[in-house]
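Q&A log
Question type: sequence-to-structure
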Amino acid sequence: MAAGQAVVAQGGCGGGDAGGVAQYRVAGGRTRDTNDTWLVQFPDIPEALTVGQDVDEAAINAEEALEAALEIYFEARRPIPMPSKPAKGQASVTLPALVTSKVFLSNEMILQGVRKVDASIA
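Response status: OK
Response body:
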């Protein structure tokens, strides 16, 4: 990937279909930081920020940062925004299917006003 090329996290629903699994893509930017590290940011999930000493480490850290930020949304019962459409040619980090499923389940439960305890009683 070229310097400054954006990172996209895929994980499970939103913009397409790959082998039966919907794609959830969260556009993000990767830029060279002032201390010679790679900074990764996700405009749709601003709580997800990370750095890496090189591009590979930044990609690994990006997935971890995104998952950690999503946990904040889950715990606070905040709706997780549907991602912006990524630009053509953006790189990607693939989120686990379980995380993707949690995103959609969480959003649906919030939409319907259902809590975990309500779901376990039914």
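Response note: Residues 1-23 have pLDDT under 50 and may be disordered.
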